[in-house]
């Protein structure tokens, strides 16, 4: 890593969420979301909601998930303890560059759509507030 860049604690509370850590541990195990869900006795949509930080698992499911993915409960919750190794500083394989660029374009387009939605909602909210006030 470059001397002028700060060290990043990839899975610490400052840089990642519970959902980020859950997804990283699941991916490291090579478990599809549906398979993890099956093993935990929940729906794949439930695991996705956990990974998207929309919902949180109950304590018993959280403990089961940690055990299934061989990470500590503390690491899943806070990023501290036994968990997944952070991403390496490896460069992208030249053959993957186009794929990565295409994914980045897709993400950018989605971000723009969300930004536009937020603007519309904000405008509606301001209008409603003026009508009430």
Provide a quick synopsis of the model.
This protein has 133 residues and is mainly α. Helix content is 59%, strand content 0%. Helix 2 (33-40) crosses helix 3 (44-51).
Task: Explain this structure.
The protein is 59% helix and 0% strand. The chain has 133 residues and is an all-alpha fold. The protein folds into two domains: 1-90, 434 Repressor (Amino-terminal Domain) (Orthogonal Bundle); 94-132. The radius of gyration is 19 Å and the shape is extended.
Q: Write down the secondary-structure element order.
A: HHHHHH
Using the coordinates above, name the CATH class of the largest domain: Mainly Alpha
The CATH superfamily of the largest domain appears as lambda repressor-like DNA-binding domains
Task: Kindly report the oligomeric state of this protein.
Answer: single chain
Radius of gyration: 19 Å
Shape: extended
What's the total count of β strands?
Answer: 0
Number of domains: 2
Structural category: mainly alpha
**CATH architecture annotation of the largest domain:** Orthogonal Bundle
Distance between the termini: 54 Å
Q: Could you please say which CATH topology of the largest domain applies here?
A: 434 Repressor (Amino-terminal Domain)
Instruction: Estimate what percentage of residues fall within beta strands.
Output: under 5%
Q: What is the average of the pLDDT values? A: 85
Set down the secondary structure blueprint.
Elements: H1 18-28, H2 33-40, H3 44-51, H4 59-68, H5 73-78, H6 97-132
Helix pairs in contact: 2-3
